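note to self — DONT lose this again. spent like an hour looking for the file last time. sequence + predicted structure for the chain T wanted, 66 res
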Amino acid sequence: MREIELEKAQAKLSRIMKDSRAGKPTIITRDGEKVAVILSYDDYQNLPGVRWPTDVPVDQNRQRPE
């Protein structure tokens, strides 16, 4: 899995999204710390332990279950 600094990721977001759909997730770093992963929606749905319903809109004011 490749890693890319946040500032570079912002400039290359379209490419990162395309790569994620091709099964190539990307780790986003900030100040050298791993802070996020971009992966395809299909890969996300297949993660073990994903409980949040993915077929309904998310209310931005509501917290996700823990």
